């Protein structure tokens, strides 16, 4: 029945994937869907909106697959940056790992497993009614020589994965340096963030910064911009933008003069509304101007500033050196890209920041505990007997074969996937209040949180079904972890195969189809008429959602490849879908909002090392339970060697992802000496980190005194 339920799940998801591919091929060519499926091409002017529905364009075509396949890495680098290249390298890395593991697992280990008779022999005439356990290592007799095939497979895959990890780390490191050499001068390369700035009585933060860096960095200090509290300003600007959009909409559709202005039946002429909104907008701009003037005073200064230097090497030296005798003053950090700065963070007090970190820890623990509820429900759905106990009135329905197969094979993973949808935005919000100064740092932190949350709540909570205290008690007794994993992990093979099919196949297909944006466009289109001159907002790929999903499937694949190799074909299908679909998305849909220079790769490396060590722990337990003590003993060097390899990579490659070397910075600085555009760049650098809320803003046509900048940065002569 397990195999039958799994095949039902595969059939449902295969149909959904095929339907999504057909719908995408058709809908992306229709005029009402351009903003959903090709927003990047529209924004870049490579495509144009069409005002008519073309019946001939209803014919699906695979042309987008060919274009996505032909996209080279250099083209992807120029289109979406190094982060997109790293993302696709993650998928390519996983494909190579599981292609190698698949050859071993499907052609060697699977026949070995089915040849055993520990459980029962395989009835190939009635394959769908076999238990999935007969395809796993559990079907091998205790003490059988056949277990040495699994032992050899563990060693072979470990060696292959470590080789690929080294190759990818080395390749991406070199790409990161080459990307830096090829880049034009950027503000973040010449700037650092300084916090905990001491201020003399009666002085200001700006004066303290200027005096300090003129004194101790006289030859390299260029300028600084003091950070100010602008939370109220940002709220006013958001209100002004909303009002401006409504005003533009009213002015763009004069033929709707007689429409109701609200749902209570109040009639107003369009011209009255336009005048009213223009007056509101002028008043709002005046309030905004007054608030900006107040913020420019020293009383609203935050004890933080962006300090710029005349060379990259000087900025790096200031960043890495302790600036003061007192280590909690003049604390330096790397500056993010100007448009990557998370300005709301600076408006929080020190106590609020400290409390926020504590709240985030507590919130993550509570979320982990609460998430066990759907996990328990899902485990109940996979067991028909338990389901009949919970809902006795469903007994008659559960006797129907197809219904029982859908409930046990498809529904559990689908429910779990729906609950997991809310985790990435929650983790992103928690990271945003944790004290990071950039959107990219927030997303990296959220990526780590989502990954380890998924590993704990989906893998361990499913494997060790039970209470929270029971799960914690297992890890408090490390000696028994391998044996408990050896018993529990193979038993959940059918669930995780169904999870890969449901969560993996459907998620990639829905990513292609863009279900939520598509439904949103259909709902909002009759209510909101878009002005053709409106700027189109191009989305960016949510790395904190997609990278953890791929890495979690990597954990499942590496863990189960020698236990239940039947999972590998489903993983390979998922990765092939992801490889084509995400290339298409980078080409047509997503545009980068920031660039980390490939800093997501260390997360991938650490996750893969964890997967290998987890696989080794399970292998020790399995060989012990199967009474093959020699194999269990010989496995012990593997995790030690793997961790030593990880330590080598950490010392060899990780520093490249933390900071650039002096050699790299000096060579780049020397190259800039012959660049005649550098004086102009340094002029722009002086105001590059100006808070956007302090920049002059003008929406109304009657306000002409908002063109001068409010606050000028302090500049060293």
UniProtKB/TrEMBL annotation:
Keywords: Calcium, Coiled coil, Ion channel, Ion transport, Membrane, Transmembrane, Transmembrane helix, Transport. Residues 5-168 form the CSC1/OSCA1-like N-terminal transmembrane domain. The keyword Chloroplast does not apply. It is found in: Membrane. It is a multi-pass membrane protein. It holds the Pfam family RSN1_TM. Residues 357-623 form the CSC1/OSCA1-like 7TM region domain. The chain crosses the membrane at residues 6-27, 86-110, 147-166, 358-377, 389-411, 450-473, 485-505, 550-582, 603-622, 628-645. GO terms for cellular component: plasma membrane. The keyword Transmembrane applies. Residues 189-344 form the CSC1/OSCA1-like cytosolic domain. GO terms for molecular function: calcium-activated cation channel activity. InterPro entries: Csc1-like, CSC1/OSCA1-like_7TM, CSC1/OSCA1-like_cyt, CSC1/OSCA1-like_N. It comes from the Eukaryota. Residues 267-301 form a coiled coil. Belongs to the CSC1 (TC 1.A.17) family. This is CSC1-like protein At1g69450.
């Amino acid at each position: 029945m397990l195999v039958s339920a799994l095949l039902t799940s595969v059939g449902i998801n295969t149909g959904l994937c095929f339907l999504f591919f057909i719908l995408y091929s058709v809908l992306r060519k229709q005029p009402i869907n351009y903003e959903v499926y090709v927003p990047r091409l529209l924004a870049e002017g490579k495509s144009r909106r069409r005002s008519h529905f073309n019946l001939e364009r209803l014919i699906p075509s695979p042309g987008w697959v060919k274009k996505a396949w032909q996209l080279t890495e250099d083209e992807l680098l120029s289109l979406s940056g190094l982060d997109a290249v790293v993302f696709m390298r993650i998928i390519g890395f996983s494909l190579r790992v599981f292609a190698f593991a698949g050859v071993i697992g499907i052609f060697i280990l699977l026949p070995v497993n089915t040849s055993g008779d520990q459980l029962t022999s395989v009835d190939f005439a009635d394959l769908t009614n076999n238990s999935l356990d007969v395809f796993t290592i559990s079907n091998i007799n205790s003490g059988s020589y056949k277990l040495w095939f699994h032992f050899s497979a563990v060693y072979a895959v470990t060696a292959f994965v470590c080789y690929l990890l080294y190759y990818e780390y080395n390749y991406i490191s070199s790409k990161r340096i080459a990307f830096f050499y090829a880049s034009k001068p950027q503000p973040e390369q010449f700037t650092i963030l300084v916090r905990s700035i001491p201020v003399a009585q009666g002085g200001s933060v700006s004066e303290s910064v200027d005096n300090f860096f003129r004194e101790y960095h006289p030859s390299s200090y260029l300028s600084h911009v003091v950070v100010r509290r602008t939370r109220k300003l940002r709220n006013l600007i958001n209100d002004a933008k909303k009002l401006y959009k409504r005003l533009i909409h009213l002015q763009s559709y004069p033929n709707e003069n007689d429409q109701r202005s609200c749902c209570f039946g109040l009639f107003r002429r369009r011209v009255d509304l336009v005048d009213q909104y223009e007056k509101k907008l002028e008043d709002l701009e005046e309030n905004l101007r007054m608030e900006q003037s107040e913020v420019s005073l020293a009383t609203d200064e935050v004890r933080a500033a962006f300090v710029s230097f005349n060379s990259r090497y000087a900025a790096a030296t200031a960043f890495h050196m302790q600036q003061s005798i007192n280590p909690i003053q003049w604390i330096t950090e790397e500056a993010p890209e100007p448009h990557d700065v998370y300005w709301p963070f600076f408006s929080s007090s020190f106590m609020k920041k400290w409390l926020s970190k504590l709240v985030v820890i507590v919130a993550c623990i509570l979320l982990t505990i609460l998430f066990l509820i759907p996990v328990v429900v899902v485990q109940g759905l996979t067991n028909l007997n338990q389901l009949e106990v919970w809902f006795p009135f469903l007994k008659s329905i559960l006797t129907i074969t197809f219904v029982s197969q859908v409930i046990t094979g498809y529904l559990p993973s689908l429910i779990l996937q729906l609950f997991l949808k809310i985790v990435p935005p929650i983790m992103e919000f928690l990271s945003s209040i944790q004290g990071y100064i950039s959107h990219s740092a927030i997303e990296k932190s959220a990526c780590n949180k989502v990954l380890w949350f998924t590993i704990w709540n989906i893998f361990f909570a499913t494997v060790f079904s039970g209470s929270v205290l029971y799960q914690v008690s297992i890890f408090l007794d490390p000696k028994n972890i391998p044996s408990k994993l050896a018993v529990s992990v193979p038993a959940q093979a059918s669930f995780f195969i169904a999870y890969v099919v449901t969560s993996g196949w459907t998620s990639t297909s829905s990513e292609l189809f863009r279900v939520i944006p598509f439904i949103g466009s259909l709902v909002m289109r009759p209510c909101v008429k878009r002005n053709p001159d409106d700027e189109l907002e191009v989305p960016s790929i949510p790395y904190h959602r997609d990278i953890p999903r791929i890495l979690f499937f990597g954990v499942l694949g590496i863990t189960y490849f020698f236990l239940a190799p039947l999972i590998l074909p489903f993983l390979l299908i998922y990765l092939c879908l992801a490889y084509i679909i995400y290339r298409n998305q980078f080409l047509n849909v997503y545009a980068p909002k920031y660039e980390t220079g490939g800093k997501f790769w260390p997360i991938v490396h650490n996750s893969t090392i964890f997967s290998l060590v987890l696989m080794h722990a399970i292998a020790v337990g399995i060989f012990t339970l199967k009474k093959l003590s020699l194999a269990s003993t010989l496995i012990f060097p593997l995790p030690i060697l793997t961790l030593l390899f990880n330590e080598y990579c950490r010392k060899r490659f990780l520093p490249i992802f933390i900071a650039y070397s002096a050699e790299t910075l000096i060579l780049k600085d020397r190259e800039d000496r012959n660049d005649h555009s550098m004086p102009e760049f340094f002029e722009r650098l002086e105001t590059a980190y100006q808070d956007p809320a302090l920049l002059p803003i003008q929406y109304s046509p009657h306000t002409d005194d908002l063109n001068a900048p409010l606050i000028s940065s302090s500049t060293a002569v």
